[in-house]
Specification:
This protein is α+β, with helices and mostly antiparallel strands and 142 residues long. The chain is built from 4 helices and 5 strands. The two termini are 44 Å apart.
Amino acid sequence: MPGHSYILPDRVFGAIERKCVKLKTSLTPNEYIEIFKESGTGTRVGLDFEIHDRKTAKEMALKKSSNWHFQFFPCKRFVLQRGRNNVGLVQGEVAYTIDLGVPRSIAKKGQRVGNLYPRTKVNYFPLNPNKVKDVIKLLEKY
C-alpha cells in the first residue's frame, strides 16, 4: 500500500505520535522523554552517551583527499594495510581485479592514523542568544 510502512522505526514513531495526540496539554521535555522511553529505548546525549569531535581529529591527523598519492574519485577499490610501526597505509585502485597502486600513508608528517583521538564535545548544540531571548519573552508574555 502506498503511504504505509511497517518497518520498526515508523511503527515506533506512530506509537509516539498517537500518545502525544491524546494529551491535550503542551508537553514538557521530561514528559516527551517518558513517552520515548515507553515506546522504545531512550538515550540522552551527555547522560547515556557522549558525542566526539571526529572531524577535528581527522583534520589534524590526515591529509586532505586532494593531497593523497592517488586520485580519490576514479577509484573503485581501496586497500587498507597496516605497515611497520602500526602506520596505516592506503592504496587506491581504479579496477577491481588489478593491483597497480602502491600503498602509502595518508597521515600528515609526524602523525599516524592511530593518533585519531577525538575529544568529547562539551557544547553539543550551541544556542543562538537571540532565540533564547525570544523564548524568554514568549514565556513571560503567556
